[in-house]
Amino acid sequence: MSSKKKRTPNVQSDSWVVITADSAIDAQGKDCDPSFVRLRNPATDAASLYLLGGGDGVLQLYEVKTFEEEFRSWFVGQTVQRDGRLLFVTPMDPLYLILPYLIKSGKEGKFQPVAQMVMDEDFPACTKLLSCSRSQASMHHIADEKEVGSLKFHRYSQEKTMTWLKKKVEKTVPMLKNRNISVGGAIKSTTYVRVKAESDSSNEDYLRYAHGLISEYLSEELSKDLLRHLQLPEITSPKKTEPPSKKRKLSDKPVEAGEDYTKFNNEDFVRKPPKKMTAAQKSLAKVDKTGMKTMSSFFSPKVKK
Question: For the stretch 70-109, what's the b/e string if a residue is b when 16 or more beta carbons lie within 10 angstroms of its beta carbon?
């Protein structure tokens, strides 16, 4: 990307190492010059970094993912770039980012121009999403359309959105199978260790895994709606009394994990009551043990006289 745009050599914060397809940076038309923009993340509602660019005179949206480790830097030419992050740029469907704006405007229950709905004072670059490839032509997947003369008006449709998202999930499933991705019970915890054969994975496992991937671009509420539309039951969280993994190293500090395991590091943790004694154990407890030696006395060292 440095060959396309001039950079100031002494401004280190203005340079990144980026892995992307040539189509993202080969600008061949007006307003297609690649540029990083801040847009509202559809899942978190916070600011995220995206790339707008594309060749053949067609503007496209690209997602930017960051790989970051401590104490990493890059040698760029004859200089050292202190920002050691590695950016991955991949194509993304702009409808994911447009969808939250339509949902918000849809509460009014009336048809409106798309340009009037996709507006954001905090993220003014959101209007460029409507100029992306097939954004306007794909609007019917998530909204009802009405034409008045030469003008088009749209209104958010929950039914169409669920149908569109379901197709996204169903198209993801064969890709997971072709790439032999372990799903469901075939992976254990966050270590992604295969613990059983791929054939043991059911279609529900693949659907649930694909739903999780698509949900990275959806709000929590919309993700739950999609789960119900797929007729997949919600997975209940593990019981609070379930112990942590045996492989987990002991530590004086609370364990950092997705589940709340800190209670096991608390001295005030209430342990389970002892199990009930069997009938034989109860009978033995009633025996008069007066004068009997304890079992440990038979293994004690003899006292020398």
Answer: eeeeeeeeeeebebbebbebebbbbbbbbbbbbbebbeee
Share of residues in the chain with pLDDT > 90 (%): 41
- pTM score, two decimals? 0.67
Classify burial at 52, counting beta carbons within 10 Å of its beta carbon; exposed 0-12, middle 13-18, buried 19 or more. buried
Please tell me the class of the 1-92 domain.
mainly beta
166, 275, 283 from 278: Cα distances, Å: 55, 9, 9
Report the range of poorest mean pLDDT among 125-139, 174-188, 216-230: 174-188
SS3 35: strand
For the cut 80, the answer to whether the pLDDT of residue 146 exceeds it is yes
Placement of tokens 């992306």 in the chain: 132
Q: Cβ(31)–Cβ(97) under 8 Å? A: no
Classified as helix, coil or strand, 97 is: helix
